[in-house]
Amino acid sequence: MKPIKQTSFENKELTALGIEPIRLEDMRDKLPAVAERLEFYILILVTAGSGKHSVDFVEYGLSTGSLLFVRPGQVQEWSDYAELDAEVVLIDPKSLPYGDNMYAADSSLLALDRWQNCTLLPSLLYDDLLAALLRLRRDFAAFNGSQLDIALVRHEVLSILLRLARWQDQLSSMVSLPSRSQKTYQLFIQLLEQQYTAQHSLNYYAQRLGYAQSTLSRACLKYEGVSAKVVIDRRIALEAQRILAHSRASVAEVGFYLGFSETTNFIKFFKRVLGTTPSVFQRNARGNHSPDPI
Predict the structure, then answer these.
(1) Which domain holds residue 233?
(2) Do 141 and 183 fall into the same domain?
(3) Residue 70 is part of a domain; what is its CATH number?
(4) Residue 294 within a domain
């Protein structure tokens, strides 16, 4: 099966750092014309103008103060950026200090996997973030590859992300969840992300995690408003949409990749969840997206 275009953090001069702050105008000519699946985080703060950006089939309107955040694994499309100015930060996941004992809790505190893809920042937070990004870019301009400079830039990025995590926390209904329900939900989502192409049964996830199926569903209902089985189905359907729209894979190939033994079963699943057949979705999507042969 021909994959979706994968984009990794490829600046060899910055491999040790894993972070690159850049102005949008300096990368505008390099923006891909096709959809891409990221292997890194990208943070974009719009500082002037207006435009559009699509993430996993949702098109966001951007204007001054918009914060766009795309996670590894998500599929994005650079749409209308001709009239935009923005500060951009590319972040290799390996650059975040999750492995250090001093920052062992930061992964759960940041909760980057739960951030909204696009938000409009209040003016005070926008001013603070813009000042921090400009300082980051100044320090990056003086970056000499030393361990001291690596630590400085990484700590600045971590500080920025923690400040934004507090804002994202205020936007999320997860704030009101009891800690036990939150942990249950997060463990379920993590396992689902690892196994959704092979395991479609709620019973499998319940047994692996040691919870009753009803416990997983209660946690999902509190956070997403739907049962755990619906969360599973939506995750499988999202990946099906991504591949059908942004690759050359056939309906049969997509169904096989996602763990369906028969193409007819995949077609029935897709129609039940999304209300249309894979072939109709693919034809409509490819009318708007024409990936180059890979």
Answers:
(1) 179-288
(2) no
(3) 2.60.120.280
(4) no
Q: What's the alpha-carbon Rg for the chain, to the nearest Å?
A: 20
* CA–CA gap between residue 174 and residue 185 (Å, rounded): 10
Partner residues linked to 69 by β-bridges: 43
In tens digits, the chain (294 residues) has pLDDT values of 667 888 888 777 888 899 999 999 998 888 888 889 999 999 999 999 999 999 999 999 999 999 999 999 999 998 878 889 999 999 998 888 654 444 444 666 788 888 999 999 999 999 999 999 999 999 999 999 999 999 999 999 999 999 999 888 887 655 455 567 778 988 999 999 999 999 999 999 999 999 999 999 999 998 888 999 999 999 999 999 999 999 889 999 999 999 999 999 999 999 999 999 999 999 998 775 444 433
Helix/strand/coil for 44: strand
Q: Would you say residue 152 lies in a domain? A: yes
**The CATH number of the domain where 230 resides is what?**
1.10.10.60
The answer to the question of residue 44 being in a domain is: yes
If one counts the domains in the chain, the total is: 2
Give pTM, 2 decimals.
0.81
3-class DSSP state for residue 3?
Answer: coil
Burial class (CB in 10 A: 0-12, 13-18, 19+), 209: middle
